[in-house]
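Following up on my earlier thread - several people asked me to post the actual chain instead of describing it. Fair enough. Here it is, all 352 residues.
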Amino acid sequence: MTLFSTINTQTSCIILMSDHQHCTAKRARLEHKASSNKNASFPTRDCRNLWVSDRTLNCASSQRCVPCAYKICCFDVALDEEFCRIVPNQRPELCPRSNRNSYDAYTEILGYGPGLKVLTVGDGDFSFSLALARLGVTLTATSYESRRTVETVYPHIEKTLKELESLGVSIFFQVDATNLASTLPLSSDSNVKFDRIIWNFPCSAICKGQDGQNKEMELNKDLVRRFLKSAASFASPRCQIHMNHKTKPPFNQWRIEDVARELEDANGNVYHHVGRIVLDRCLLHPYIPRKALDRRSFPVHDACTYVFSLQPADMPTACAATAEAKLVPVTREVIQSIRDLHVTLHHKRRHK
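Reply from S.P.:
Thanks for posting it. Predicted structure:
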């Protein structure tokens, strides 16, 4: 072997050793960062009585979905600035379950399923009602507005209404959620009772789209109070009242759980706050939250379904009690696991 060949061979060995040492050092840095994150203190959302569908949790973990991670953990609302800087939230359409085929296998979601009698109130473009109707519930869908107003605001509403009618849904307009006894056409039948009564994002002030602000807080709390009183007359013994509601300020300051606990029905039964479920629109295609009398949607990654009942109940029994749809409690440990996973993934992509 020539001197030149020997030098080349030695140089190659040195380069290979250098590359190996570099990879080992990089792996060590990643493991150190992951370990540091696990031990670090960080702010978390309020996890009390908070639940999430196992499908949402699986998407955030196994599918490594950033939008679902934010739905569960609300890093921005919790003011976890470090995580938000490292892993910014993404548009909900980037969730791998946002395509139409994701919904075909769902037969029972979060306590909605065949055999239940359901009433929806204040459904802007009826997209939420359509999501439930496709699950096979016996549905009565209502709007606060007149049919003419709904058709003017939502140009494609006719297609939705036709599908609802084909699914056997009863549709009524100009129904006041706070005065169902006088405005719901079925109210003359004393035997009409519902197993679920749902109002999504109740809000009274809509001027310039600034709904739910602090100056209208007492007005909105009174709106919730009057709705719960009105709904009690139409509640079956197993009825749940569901309200989708945002959890970031100022909406969390409404404290609708406390509002509900103050009330009782005509028989002296008080409302029980069963719990909150992380709202995942991917479980309820084609639902799109709309502003009142407006085609625009609004972000709801921080929203939860607040569940109330006139009978004591625990969340796993009250909702998703079948193998089709399981609920998992959201704990600090769950948030920690999701946080660590996405931070580690970010660092790995960055150092590739």
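The first helix runs from residue 3 to 39. That should answer part of your original question.
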